[in-house]
Input
Amino acid sequence: MRTKSIQNIVNFEVKPINPIAPYLGGKRLLAKTIIPLIDKIPHNIYCEPFIGMGGIFFRRTKKPKCEAVNDINSEIVNMFRMVERFPDYLADMLRFKICSRAEFKRMLATPPLLLTELERAVRYLYIQKNAFGGKTFSQVFGVALERTRFDSERIIPQIHMLHKRLAGVYVECLPYQEFIKRYDRPDTLFYLDPPYWGCESFYGKDFFSRADFGELAKLLKGIKGKFIMSINDVPEIRAIFKGFHQKEVNTRYTAGTQSGKKAAELLIGNIDLSLL
Ligand SMILES: C[S@@+](CC[C@H](N)C(=O)[O-])C[C@H]1O[C@@H](n2cnc3c(N)ncnc32)[C@H](O)[C@@H]1O
Output
């Protein structure tokens, strides 16, 4: 079904789904705040330069004509590609896997370069599903006593839902600068969720550095489209992005806990977020 806003922007309704695996910095709690803001900003092209497991992207209930997601981590992008292209093979390969610490360690010790693309996707999903707190580095096997983290009965339907949702979405594996430049148009909306200040290396040693915040601010100053970014609220970030609108929100960081620790998060954008 189609819905039209007064700006002649076309949106399609879409079924929200949960991300396929937990992820450090995933936006489960902030999604309720961020998604309604995104929906209020007219756009024909929706882009996420730092997709991770897609904590915002997959929970949206509306989509525009064009969507593009990106991550520099080629294991993530390969996993999405395999879900898009070979969901049944992937499901078959996961069907008989049990939830096992020994298997988790074996997978962690296997270099992805020795594997086929499908095996790499299986490895990525198995590790990320079982990793304590959705951690992306120094991963250890997490035991959840209420229910196992990896259950083939649950992951197979998730693969099929993800396959459906990814239809028609561009999936890129570029440094964020290149991705933003390629997709920037006057009717583009970027939602950015970069690594947090102080956690720059959590997603890979050479992907993102402290200097990238300044580079990002400079790049975003010159774009034709609109953007919203979520980031931890620290004085250094406020200073680097002082030329933009800033709005505080409260959330909880939940890595490995039920209730989480209260945390201040900042939304930054080139539109007045308080008016939305
Ligand atoms: C905070 S996480 C995003 C979490 C995501 N919003 C979610 O809900 O799962 C940041 C992501 O940025 C990616 N990343 C880090 N440096 C990057 C770079 N230079 N270009 C593109 N992506 C990068 C990481 O691999 C990681 O997946």
About this structure: The radius of gyration is 19 Å. Confidence is low (pLDDT under 50) at residues 1-6.
